[in-house]
Amino acid sequence: MRRLILAVALLSAGSAQAANLAVTPSGLDAALAAAKGGDTLVLTGDFGAVAITGQTYRPAIRLDLSAATLAGLQVTESEGVEVSGGTIHSTPAAPPVAVMNSKHVHLENVAAADPGAHYAFDIRGSSDVSVVNSRIDGGKVGIVLWDVDGAKISGNRIRGVNIDGMDIASARNVVVEDNSCADTVVVDNHHPDCIQMWTQPGLPQSENITLRRNTAKGGMQGFDDFGGDRRGILGLVVEDNTAEVSYPQGLAILSSPGAIVRNNHVRTLPGSQWRASVRITAPDAQACGNTADAGAGKPGWSDGACRR
Questions:
Q1: Separation between Cα atoms, residue 159 and residue 161, nearest integer Å
Q2: Alpha-carbon span 187 to 191, nearest angstrom
C-alpha cells in the first residue's frame, strides 16, 4: 500500500476558528496532526488505511468521507472523532472500523463493505460511542460492543453476516433502536442471532441496555441474552421489537434479573423447521404484550396485553 502523503488546502480563514481542510490521498497523517479541535477534514478520493492513535481533539474533529473510500479506519486511545459518510473496506489484517480504548467517537452514514472474516464495526474498551444510520454488508458480526460504557446504535441496516448482527458483551448504558438484520449467511454451524447480549467472565456486568423497535428477518434467531457467565444484564429493557425468523429463539430473555420485556412480536418464516418462540425465564422479569404467531404446525402464544 502506498504511503498517504498530505495535500491540504485551508478553506476557512482565521487560525483561532474551526477550519475546513480539503484532504486528498497524499498525506493524511500530517492532516490529522495539523488539525485542531472543531476542524472538519473533507476527504476526497480512494485512501488506504487511516489510523488515529493517541490523539485528543476538543471539541471533536469531523471526518467528512462522503466523497471518499477508505481501506480501514482505526481509532485507538483517542478522544473526539466524528465520522460521516463514505465507504470503508476491510483489509486482510483489520476490519472496516475499529474503535479501541477511545471516547467520544461517533460514526454516521458509513458503509462498511466487504468485512470478510472480520467484524464490521469492532468497538472495545471505549465510552460515549455511536453508530447511526450506517450500512453493513457481510462479515462475521455486524457490530461488536465489548466492555463499552455509553453507546447509541440506531438506524443501522445489517445484511449478510455469518454469525450475529450485533454482539453486546459487558456493556453499560447502551441504547439499540431501529436497527434491522436480514439475509444471514451461516458458516461453520453457528447459530446466528440478530442481537445477542451477555456478561463476559472477568469483565463488569452488563447494565442498562435498551433494545427498542429493532427487526430481524430471515435465517436467524432474534434477540437474546444467553452466553457468557449467565449473570445476564441488569436494567435490561426489551420492547417493541419484531422477529420473523426460521430459528427457534425469536426472543429469549433467560438470565437478566428484573428485565422489562414488553410488546415484542415473533413470527415464523414459512417453511421453517421450528416455530419461532418467546422464552422469558429471567428471575423477576416483568413481561407483557409479547406474542408468537402460530407456525411450523404449532399454535400461537401470548403472555397477555400490558396494563396501562
A1: 6
A2: 9
Nearest 10 degrees: Cα torsion 94, 98, 102, 103: 170
Q: Give the global pTM.
A: 0.93
How confident is the model over 281-299, as pLDDT tens digits? 999 999 999 999 999 999 9
Spell 163-186 as b/e; 16+ CB within 10 A means b: bbbbbbbbbbbbbbbebbbbebee
| Amino acid identity for residue 251 in this structure | L
Q: Which CATH superfamily is domain 69-299 in?
A: Single-stranded right-handed beta-helix, Pectin lyase-like (2.160.20.10)
Place of cell 478553506: 11
For strands 20-24 and 7-10, give the pairing: antiparallel
C-alpha cell at 153: 446504535
CA 232 centroid distance within chain: 19
4 secondary structure, DSSP code: P
